[in-house]
């Protein structure tokens, strides 16, 4: 395995009852790389992200993290190994406040007398949300009361501010307005420029993929059907791939 490969997925399959979500899927993520994952609805993108972040287990296949076997037992286990994710249902706890969700399971605790450093956590939450231009006046409010975009912002801010060096962002711009989406893309660019973090982004917008990612993988029917550096592809090529797959699926169904 080349030295710069941080995460390798080999021959992974995953079914849910009769539905085959992933079939013999292979994927490689390199150090500091931003990999864009494209694919139709139901292609298997979220299933792959959930397997990578320890939320689901593959049926077969192997994964390697920094050259070691990677078999996460839970999301917390994956996080302890340096992989953190925002996935589609966001994993926020409705009853907890904005800042409690932001520091969920990594609360700042005063030592040696253990009490929560609430003020410090609120300040850091405010800074992180300001960075992506989201104004949530009351950080003590339960997140159940927030809009979809605000909830999305908390989930993204929480992940990009984690200590992880592999970030998995499943549709990080979903539910975001154009301005907030642009700020998140800026933040992704800054993380990329640091060279310290590798990312997999599930995106639906080809322009965003070409602008923000180093490489693009297209997932079709549970396998990676296309893998190229973004510098070597174009909107036209990506559109043509998706349209021809749509035609193929229509023909297969008829
Ligand atoms: N927990 C589950 N139980 C049953 N089927 C599931 C489950 N999770 C995913 N699937 C099925 O697996 C397939 C792949 O789903 P997945 O959510 O990975 O697709 P996706 O590419 O993320 O789609 P979208 O862009 O619509 O989110 C779909 O047919 C979906 O219905």
Automatic annotation (TrEMBL):
GO molecular function, one term: ATP binding
InterPro entries: AAA+_ATPase, ABC_carbohydrate_import_ATPase, ABC_transporter-like_ATP-bd, ABC_transporter-like_CS, P-loop_NTPase
Spans through the membrane: none
Pfam families recorded: ABC_tran (PF00005)
Residue ranges constituting the ABC transporter domain according to the UniProt record: 7-246
SMART domains referenced in this protein's UniProt entry, alphabetically: AAA
Keywords: ATP-binding, Nucleotide-binding
Full protein name: Monosaccharide ABC transporter ATP-binding protein (CUT2 family)
Source organism of this protein record: Solirubrobacter pauli
């Amino acid at each position: 395995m080349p030295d710069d490969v941080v995460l390798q997925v080999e021959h992974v399959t995953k079914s849910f009852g009769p539905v085959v979500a992933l079939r013999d899927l292979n994927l490689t993520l390199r150090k500091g790389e931003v990999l864009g994952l494209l694919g139709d609805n139901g292609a298997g993108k979220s299933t792959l992200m959930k397997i990578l972040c320890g939320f689901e287990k593959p049926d077969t296949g192997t994964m390697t993290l920094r050259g070691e076997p990677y078999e996460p037992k839970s999301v917390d286990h994956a996080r302890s190994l340096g992989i953190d994710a925002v996935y589609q249902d966001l994993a926020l706890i409705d009853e907890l406040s904005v800042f409690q969700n932001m520091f969920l399971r990594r609360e700042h605790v005063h030592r040696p007398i253990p009490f929560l450093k609430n003020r410090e956590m609120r300040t850091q939450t405010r800074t992180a949300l300001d960075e992506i231009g989201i104004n949530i006046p009351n950080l003590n409010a339960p997140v159940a009361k927030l809009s979809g975009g605000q909830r999305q912002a908390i989930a993204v801010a929480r992940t990009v501010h984690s200590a992880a060096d592999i970030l998995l962002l499943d549709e990080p711009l979903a539910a975001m307005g154009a301005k907030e989406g642009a700020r998140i893309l800026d933040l992704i660019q800054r993380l990329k420029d640091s060279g310290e973090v590798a990312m997999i982004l599930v995106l639906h917008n080809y322009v965003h993929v070409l602008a923000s990612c180093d490489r693009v993988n297209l997932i079709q029917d549970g396998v990676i059907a296309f893998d190229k550096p973004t510098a070597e592809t174009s909107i036209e090529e990506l559109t043509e791939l998706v349209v021809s797959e749509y035609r193929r699926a229509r023909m297969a169904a008829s």
